[in-house]
Design goal:
It is a single chain. The protein is built from 14 helices and eight strands. The longest helix has 30 residues. Strand 4, helix 4 and strand 5 form a beta-alpha-beta unit. Strands 3-2-1-4-5-6-7-8 form an eight-stranded mixed beta sheet, sandwiched between helices. Helix content is 44%, strand content 11%. Helix 9 packs across helix 12 and helix 9 crosses helix 13. The radius of gyration is 25 Å and the shape is elongated.
Length: 344
């Protein structure tokens, strides 16, 4: 098949490469001319604009957008007059599922088909493949099956996912790494929940390793004052918790082994103190939307919500709240802040 790829960032470029490797034709466009030319040297067809890209495709034209969520509507506005009945537009970024429902309704009036495809795989997708969560009409999804199959990991022999019976979910495309989840918005809804879970998993690893790291510190003499809780902890007398080696240990045979742990172990092996990071953790939207959806559905998600809020705290969003706590303690009990811990 031949497909247009707009947005050649960290994931878009590698998705185009994976499609080319599978024998599909890719017409590519990005604001970076150098990136376009690099991919052209690897077998893609370069284009100089979105109009040029569309002109180089034959009907039904298929355009896959890999741009930030905030840029999708503007791009669609530019594409819409150039597209015709039967053409397919795919948003493979991290749009809010509510926007997908609106966009599908707007485009369908022109006969343009719109799919939302939640795409997971990050920088490793070129090698490992991408997990694809697809929303949109059945016919368009079926038509693009060769594209989805090429991007997805396929059945990985020897993995836990390839074990077990061949009934139920394992007989669907889910076993190969892609799944049609429902109508417009469904793909990004499933990806949104996926990313909310990712927040929670990352937070659990972070908290566990932090406990090991802090417990590894030398025990200080107990300070007796009204500002310090009495130390009642009993820790091993000799502690030599090598965080990088523990991360590596857990990768082998442990029930908490995962790809996220693999990635953490890789960074810890390079720098066990992680002093090349400031620890200010961003959130790109999906965690927030997951919590919002849970509120709408009255579904408790305390772990996912706490993981999201901890990211806010990492960026100093709770600094003023902590000042309020110190101010109240000073007022009701004359408690002074510990100067050694006070922020400059």
């Amino acid at each position: 098949m031949k497909i247009g790829m707009i947005g050649l960032g960290r994931m878009g470029s590698n998705m185009a490469r994976r499609l080319i490797k599978a024998g599909h034709g890719c017409v590519v466009f990005d604001q970076s001319t150098a990136t376009v030319q690099t991919l052209a040297g690897e077998g893609a067809t370069a284009s100089t604009s979105t109009a040029d890209l569309i002109a180089k495709l034959s009907a039904p034209r298929v355009i896959w957008m890999m741009v930030p969520a905030a840029g999708v509507d503007a791009l669609l506005k530019a594409l819409q007059p150039l597209l015709g009945r039967g053409d397919i537009v795919i948003d493979g970024g991290n749009s809010h599922y509510v926007d997908d429902i609106r966009r599908e309704h707007e485009l369908s009036s022109q006969g343009i088909r719109y799919l939302d495809v939640g795409t997971s795989g990050g920088l490793w997708g070129l090698e490992r493949g991408y997990c694809l969560m697809i929303g949109g009409e059945d016919q368009a999804v079926q038509y693009l099956d060769p594209i989805f199959a090429a991007l997805a990991p396929g059945v990985v022999q020897g993995s836990t996912a390839s074990a077990g019976t061949t009934t139920g979910a394992t007989t669907s495309t889910a076993r190969r790494g892609y799944l049609h989840c429902g109508s417009a918005g469904s793909g990004h809804f499933v990806k949104m929940v996926h990313n909310g879970i990712e927040y929670g998993l990352m937070a659990a690893y972070a908290e566990g390793f932090n406990l090991l790291y802090r417990a590894n510190q030398q025990t200080k003499a107990q300070e007796v004052s009204a500002e310090h809780a009495p130390d009642r902890s009993v820790l091993p007398k000799k502690r030599d918790f090598k965080i990088d080696q523990i991360a590596e240990l857990w990768r082998h045979g442990s029930v908490v082994s995962s790809w996220l742990l693999d990635l953490a172990a890789d960074q810890l092996a390079k720098n066990p103190e992680l002093d090349n990071f400031a620890g200010r953790v961003a959130d790109s939207g999906e965690g927030r939307w997951t919590v919002e959806a849970a509120i709408e559905a009255a579904v408790p998600v305390p772990v996912l919500a706490t993981a999201l809020f901890s990211r806010f705290a990492s960026r100093g969003e709770d600094d003023f709240a902590n000042k309020i706590l110190s101010a109240m303690r000073l007022e009701f009990g004359g408690h002074q802040e510990n100067a050694s811990k006070a922020k400059s």
